[in-house]
Amino acid sequence: MLTETDCWSRLRSVPVGRIGYIEGDVPVIRLVNFSVRKGDIVIWTVPGGCGSSVAGQVVAFEVDQVDPRSRSGWTVLAAGTAEAVTDVEELLAATDFPRRPWVAERNDQVNRIRVDRISGLQLPALPGIP
User: Rounded to two decimals, what is the model's pTM?
Assistant: First the structure.
């Protein structure tokens, strides 16, 4: 198990995560750009994308890093309530983070996840694997 401090540190170390939520009656998982701000996860999506669906939902958010060669890595899972960011000052603050968009479309719908729970695992290399 990772400590809460380790979880937040690893969460900050990667630019893309996965958000899990319900769309209609179906569980959905999507890749999103994100950053961490004041204990919240801030995500950017294209207008009409998952950002429209997640506001008000309890969602899951996961990041990880794996090394297939050594079969090692780590994973962090956070859960909390998603909400649309509409306050102008908060939107401006959200743009202060270096974003690495992975889509060519405008991805300026901003949501935050108010994290209630966070946990993580370290996956050690298997013995005998170089």
Answer: 0.84
